[in-house]
Specification:
The chain has 339 residues and is of the alpha/beta class. 32% of the residues lie in helices and 20% in strands. It has eleven helices and twelve strands. The chain has helices at 2-7, 26-35, 54-62, 66-69, 90-104, 155-164, 182-191, 212-220, 239-252, 290-302, 317-323; strands spanning 11-16, 19-23, 43-50, 75-83, 108-111, 117-124, 127-133, 173-175, 232-236, 258-262, 276-279, 309-312. It has a five-stranded mixed β-sheet, with helices on one face. The longest helix has 15 residues, at 90-104.
């Protein structure tokens, strides 16, 4: 993610536990929300202060010029985490912030439930960090996928895996387990420079500080370009999965860039001599015999797709053994709660 933000020309980019920090004004916030393919949310630091007692915590919350950050009468969701601090009671921390919001901007529904806006309080070693979510819905919700197959891969995770595999559109791509088309559509949007947030709205658009003129400049600066450099193929043994992929590609505006077909892994043929195969085969709670899919995929990569690079989501040692291939690198992550 840090490399992506550097490429977006954002300043002060630094990897930190759980994410990446950058510095800048609202232009940078707008650009990160619209253009980041791998981020989950973009948070703005509202305040940082020390507090070893609840009266100091309340005073720190009250020092924030809330009318500049939140619209009057808005619904707010408050989330709190606390580690190694004398202020260990997360419920009390939330109550102190809710009381301040009620007295300053008349926020309604402030609590743990869904809200129009979301505040995050992180307390560690008696240091309080208060952040405002500028994204709203999770950034993996691009807007092009209105239907999905079993246990779909999140769009931002798919984009991150493509980046980790070093795929930049300069070679063909094949997903033989396309499901609802996440890899194929994310790849096509990348090669056509379609911003991942082009079809959705963001929480920052209803903040008092929102600048429509600056937002228009950000949007105009990232106009899509024409067709991809190399073909993108998606296939699946299930006709309904092929239909979902085609539907997602149409909704994303990349239907001409993605070629889809109903083909079982056992029947795969190489569409061209070289390329990247990327796959999220069925496993865990998903339908079907996962190990059989991995065995078939391994045979294809040793046979008709020999010479192709590959990046495959593998849930454990059994699937890795079934795949029967030696990876040059592996990267741990969680998908659907499964390591």
């Amino acid at each position: 993610m840090a490399r992506e933000l550097v490429d977006l020309e954002l300043a002060g980019v630094k990897a930190v536990p759980g994410g990446v920090e950058f510095q800048g004004g609202w232009f940078g916030v707008y650009r990160a929300n619209l253009c980041s393919r791998v981020a989950s949310r973009v948070l703005v630091r509202v305040a940082r202060f020390e507090a070893t007692a609840f009266h100091a915590l309340a005073a720190g919350f009250a020092d924030v010029p809330w009318a500049e950050w939140l619209p009057a009468g808005c619904a707010v969701e408050v989330r709190v985490t606390c580690h190694r601090s004398r202020l260990y009671h997360t419920g009390r921390i939330r109550e102190e912030l809710v009381a301040v919001l009620d007295s300053t901007v008349g926020a309604v529904g402030a609590g743990t439930g869904e809200g129009e806006h979301r505040l995050q309080v992180r307390v560690q070693d008696d240091r309080v960090e208060l952040s405002l979510d500028t994204s709203g819905e999770h950034l993996h919700r691009r807007g092009y996928r209105d239907h999905a197959g079993p246990a779909p891969l999140r769009e931002n995770l798919a984009a991150g895996l493509l980046a980790r595999a070093g795929w930049d559109g300069t070679e063909p791509l094949l997903d033989p387990c396309c499901g609802s088309g996440t890899f194929a559509v994310e790849a096509a949007c990348l090669t056509q420079h379609i911003p991942p947030g082009a079809q959705r709205g963001f929480a920052f658009q209803s903040l008092p500080a929102f600048e429509p003129r600056v937002w228009a400049q950000v949007v105009q600066a990232v106009a899509p370009v024409s067709a991809p450099q190399h073909p993108i193929y998606g296939s699946d043994r299930a006709p309904e999965a092929v239909a979902l992929t085609a539907r997602a590609a149409r909704r994303a505006g990349v239907a001409e860039a993605v070629q889809v077909a109903c083909v079982a892994i056992e029947e795969l043929e190489a569409p061209c001599p070289r390329g990247l195969l990327v796959a999220n085969p069925p496993y865990g709670r998903r339908l079907g015999d996962g190990e059989a899919a991995y065995r078939a995929l391994g045979r294809a990569l040793r046979g008709p797709l020999r010479g192709w690079r590959w990046a495959v989501v593998v849930p454990g040692k059994e699937a890795q053994r079934a795949l029967g291939l030696m990876a040059s690198a592996s990267y741990p992550f969680r998908n659907g709660g499964i390591r």
